[in-house]
């Protein structure tokens, strides 16, 4: 008995494989609400440091869940609505916003945070823990 299907089993496997690859790529390419510009800024500021989202966010939880350090930074960003403003722009405008607004906001927040340490001997020493890779979601890059 002859098959009425015009495609061979091999062809259908290729099509299914490409479809699965496409779905995986679409999922991985979806935008993330955590701001990669913060990671890049911290890594530029501390060249030996590798930073992940877990420096500010709770591992395995939605990005709205922040750890202690993330909460401290969020408080320092209060009133700036960085995420909402970031969401409102796209493409080149978003890149410009990241460079012109978000990067300076992070650097300013870190300077405020480090200044608190000088005034309060009981405050966590983020200025020491960050470059040492002692924060959650951070580690020192391996030398090559």
Largest sheet: 2 strands, antiparallel
Kindly name the structural category: mainly alpha
Helix content range of the residues, please?
40-55%
Order of helices and strands: HHEHHHHE
The DSSP helix count reads: 6
Q: What is the general shape?
A: elongated
What kind of oligomer do you see?
Answer: single chain
Number of domains: 1
Roughly how many Å is the radius of gyration? 22 Å
What is the mean pLDDT? 83
**Strands of the biggest beta sheet: in what spatial order?**
1-2
- Report the end-to-end length measured between terminal Cα atoms: 63 Å
Portion in strands: under 5%
Low-confidence sequence ranges: 24-33
The tally of strands reads 2
Describe the structure.
The structure is a single chain. The protein has 144 residues and is mostly helical. It has one domain. The chain is 54% helix and 4% strand. The chain has a two-stranded antiparallel ribbon with strand order 1-2. It is elongated and about 80 Å long.
Question: Which helices and strands occur, and which strands form pairs?
Answer:
Blueprint: H1 9-28, H2 36-45, E1 49-51, H3 68-76, H4 82-87, H5 91-119, H6 126-129, E2 138-140
Antiparallel strand pairs: 1-2
